[in-house]
Amino acid sequence: MAGHSKWSNIKHKKAKEDKKRAKIFNKHLREITVAAREGGGDPEMNPRLDTAINNAKSDNVPKDNIERAIKKGTGELDEGEGRYEDATYEGYGPGGIAYFIEVTTNNYNRTVGEIRHIFSTFGGNLGTDGSVGYLFEQKGMIRIPIDGQDEEEFMLEAIDAGAEDIETGDDFFALTTGRESMYKVRDNLKDQGHEIESAELVRIPSTEVKVDEQTAESNFKLMSEFDDNDDVSNVFTNMKMDEETLAIGEQID
Fold first, then answer.
1. Exposure winner among 44, 67, 96, 194, fewest CB in 10 A?
2. Binning pLDDT at 50, 70 and 90, where does residue 14 land?
3. Residue 138: CB partners within 8 Å, gap ≥ 6?
4. Can you point out the beta strands (E) in 69-155?
5. Which domains does the chain have, with CATH numbers?
6. Residues 95, 211: contact at Cβ < 8 Å?
């Protein structure tokens, strides 16, 4: 988990510095729209929506945009974009690295075509449903800014809140939770007075594959291409994220 948590932190930092803010905003707003449609427009009664709104605010998505996305989800506003749905795709990247990709799309044909094209461009291939999904376990990940907090004291509070694992990054703590307990742990931490940077469900590989420098670079470029796609919400792989490999990833734009 450690390496993937660190890579997630690196991606999170890059997202903060990304000049293409519209893409970041768009991904947040699609998640808000789907969350509102599935669970209603009241964040107090819809944990997924509440989390999506908080995550969007942490990336400075304007309030008006958030409110419009909620109305689109509840059906109060129709902008003619079609109905957004969640979907997943599985496949293999360079060196046989497994990929599990989550998307939010209003056009499955367009999205699957783009996913297939990206895989093939970088020497990978789109697989069938279930081809690699069994290699990943879904967990919750919560980020909390360090802001001068005592690490040992915070860890005790996080464990009391229900966290399974805690890691320390440069700027924030990364907490791992059970899939079903993420919202409860998040709320417990908020009740303790902690600021929630973000909370999301992630997929952790059960086993990891160590690759050479060239294969790592090819896979990081593939991940970056997926991250740049408007329909893609999350990309997970089973490439081993040790310090040597992470150093390669940090150099990829």
1. 44
2. low
3. 179, 201, 202, 203, 204
4. 85-92, 98-105, 125-126, 136-145
5. 1-10+84-253 (3.30.70.980), 11-74 (1.10.10.200)
6. yes
